[in-house]
TrEMBL record:
InterPro entries, A to Z: Thiolase, Thiolase-like, Thiolase_C, Thiolase_CS, Thiolase_N
Protein family per UniProt: Belongs to the thiolase-like superfamily. Thiolase family.
UniProt-listed PROSITE patterns: THIOLASE_2
Keywords: Acyltransferase, Transferase
Pfam families linked to this entry: Thiolase_C, Thiolase_N
The name this protein goes by in its record: Acetyl-CoA C-acetyltransferase
Residue intervals of the Thiolase C-terminal domain: 261-382
Lineage of the species this protein comes from: Bacteria, Bacillati, Actinomycetota, Actinomycetes, Cryptosporangiales
Domain Thiolase N-terminal: from-to ranges: 5-252
CDD domains xref list: thiolase
Native source species: Cryptosporangium japonicum
Length: 383
């Protein structure tokens, strides 16, 4: 039976909006992590079959197939191709899925999967904003087919996060406690040096900028809600950020030919979608199906990474799956560390792999909510 192995995983530190990475061209940011990945694994870059990068809002410095451009600006071999994909927040996690599927199919032996996003330079939803000059306010608002199927109602992640908080009766205080824990866990990880091995510093910038020291429940309680009468505030949402991250996925043949040491086996990959108006509920049914298909139960998973798009998303997921939050986002999540959309999937997976190794755990499960109501699930088995 064919296997897909992860033999390397690296990321940049995550920069906050307007922070240390704000002025870095997206291709150079992606190129930096690609150079680091090749150097750390010791693989001949010329043996790589493909480079698959996630990225959203692919305009400006992120346009023109940034996966290919990033590889080239890194000075890597010109014959290696690259492709950029968009599954919204799950784009680079999907890149890992495509890489693993290529290896498992026998059509590729070494595939780079990663992502890049400079949200400071290219603000979130820039592609939609650009579309306004052509008369389109969103990808679907002017679509008669969409209106016929889903009606004339607001579709946004902010509304979804509020709907989830209401349906699962998640109080603002409960969500603020979760958000505070995210910052505290991230800061504890930084102070203990747990991220050092997974980060490729960009110049002198080597530490994630998002986690806030000195934040408190009292400070969070003073924030205005994102929507009038709502429960969600900026403190309960992921941070706007800049980063790049990448993994190297290898076949058994590549492991033997290049003398590589597998760090994890890709045990399961799947994607499932839910209601696009609710949008952020996808991780719940997607996780259930992934566990069923993999033959694993919640108790078999040592660590979970559930992207903290909003506190309500993770808390509703944990309640539905009956997962102890002590095993979820143990080194903080996107509320503290930030959510550089196209790069988050492989950023999470890089951190998950390193933490499994640190703890000696066996299985790690990662799931993300994504635009359109979608959710990717990956289960890694540490070797």
């Amino acid at each position: 039976m064919a296997e897909a192995y992860i033999v390397g995983a690296v990321r940049t530190p995550v920069g906050k909006r307007g922070g240390s990475l704000a002025g870095v061209h997206s291709a150079d940011l992606g190129g930096h992590v690609l150079s680091a990945l090749m150097a750390r694994t010791g693989v001949d870059p010329g043996a790589v079959d493909d480079v698959i990068f996630g990225c959203c809002d692919t305009i400006g410095s992120q346009a023109g197939d940034v996966a290919r451009t990033a590889w080239l600006v890194a000075g890597l071999p010109v014959h290696v191709p690259g492709v950029t994909i968009d599954r919204q927040c799950g784009s680079s996690q999907q890149a890992v899925h495509f890489a693993a599927q290529g290896v498992l199919s026998g059509t590729a032996d070494l595939v780079v999967a990663g992502g890049v996003q400079n949200m400071s330079a290219i603000p979130i939803s820039s592609a939609m904003t650009v579309g306004q000059q052509f008369g389109f306010t969103t990808p679907f608002a002017e679509s008669p087919g969409w209106a016929e199927r889903f009606g004339d109602q607001e579709v946004s992640q902010f509304r979804s996060a509020e709907l989830i908080a209401e349906k699962w009766d998640l109080s603002r205080a409960e969500m603020e406690e979760f958000a505070l824990a995210s910052h505290e866990r991230a800061l504890a990880a930084i102070d203990a040096g747990r991220f050092v091995d997974e980060i490729a510093p960009v110049g002198e910038f080597a530490v994630d900028e998002g986690p806030r020291r000195g934040t408190s429940l009292e400070k969070m309680a003073g924030l205005a809600p994102l929507r009038e009468g709502g429960r969600l505030t900026a403190a309960l949402a992921s941070g706007i950020s800049d980063a790049a991250s990448a993994l190297l996925v290898a076949s058994e043949r590549a492991v033997a030919d290049h003398g590589l040491t597998p760090r994890a086996r890709v045990h399961h990959v799947s994607v499932l979608a839910d209601d696009p108006v609710w949008m952020l509920t996808g991780p719940i049914p997607a996780t259930r199906r992934a566990l069923e298909r993999s033959g694993l139960g919640v108790g078999d998973i040592d660590l979970f990474e559930v992207n903290e798009a909003f506190a309500s998303v993770v808390l509703a997921w944990a309640r539905e799956l009956d997962v102890d939050l002590a095993r979820v986002n143990v080194n903080g999540g996107a509320i503290a560390l930030g959510h550089p959309i196209g790069a988050t999937g492989t950023r999470l997976m890089t951190s998950l792999l390193h933490e499994l190794e640190r703890r000696g755990g066996r299985y790690g499960l990662q799931v993300m909510c994504e635009g359109g109501g979608q959710a990717n699930v990956t289960i890694l088995e540490r070797l």
